[in-house]
Design brief:
This protein is an alpha+beta fold and about 230 residues long. About 30% of the residues lie in helices and about 15% in strands. Strands 1-2-3-6-7 form a five-stranded mixed beta sheet. It has a two-stranded antiparallel ribbon with strand order 4-5. A hairpin with a 7-residue loop joins strand 2 and strand 3.
Length: about 230
């Protein structure tokens, strides 16, 4: 990239200096039980193939923050101290740079990079039990329980989308502040709700899941709630 092109990219991808979601903090040991319940409920109600975290020890093993390994943040309800309403996590998976050279002809030598410090989105969870009521006119327009249910689901999805945008925007800020160069995620779970608006670029690889000794129909990626690590 030329200097003007690089400056444009930097300006386009610029992030705030600090997170914006009230009550956001690093996960602590005392949060494990609530995170497990929130995660299991969110996965079960949103996706078709999911892991089940049966014990707090499992959640602590996978999600408790560990230096240079995994970062997990929770949102504590300001109105009800101690109550966890949301969480998200990401992990580190650096890649080696095989060939890095200074740009020829540059007035100032560019740094030679030996690795790319990449963060990968892991598990997250938020509420999906919004109390959505339809007006008598809306019920009449729906003309039946099936369409009513679809309308409630669409409105719930929109509320979840807005919340995930807030959470993942802060995940990007926190990853940048932790020294990561890039933040990656797959097109699974509810990630399609935020990847475009948060300016993620599409990759060129595919990850396929094979369930040995199980018969299962094909499942589209937005319905997959199992993150491989």
């Amino acid at each position: 990239l030329s200097a003007p092109e690089l400056a444009k990219v930097v300006a386009t991808m610029r992030l705030p200096t600090t997170p914006s979601v009230p009550g956001l903090r690093a996960m602590r040991k005392g949060d494990v039980g609530q995170v497990r319940k929130l995660l299991n409920r969110f996965l079960k109600r949103r996706f078709e193939i999911v892991p089940v975290f049966r014990t707090d020890a499992e959640v602590a093993h996978w999600l408790m923050p560990r230096t240079d390994v995994v970062w997990t943040y929770v949102v504590e309800d300001a109105g009800r101290p101690g109550r966890i309403t949301d969480f998200f996590s990401f992990y580190s998976l650096p890649s080696a740079v095989l060939k890095s050279e200074s740009r020829k002809g540059a007035k100032k030598a560019a740094p030679v990079y030996r690795s790319v410090n990449a963060a990968y989105l892991f598990y997250y969870g938020t509420r999906d039990d919004y109390d959505i009521s339809l007006t008598p006119n809306e019920r009449e327009m729906c003309g039946g329980a099936k369409r009513e249910k679809a309308l409630v689901r669409a409105r719930t999805d929109e509320l979840i989308r807005k919340r995930l945008l807030e959470l993942m925007a802060d995940a990007l800020v926190l990853a940048r502040n932790a020294g990561f160069d890039v933040f990656n995620c797959l097109d699974m779970m509810d990630n399609s709700m935020f990847i475009r608006e948060l300016k993620f670029g599409p990759g060129d690889g595919y990850l396929r899941y094979y369930l040995f000794n199980y018969m299962a129909r094909a499942i589209e990626s937005p319905k997959v709630g199992f993150v491989m690590l």
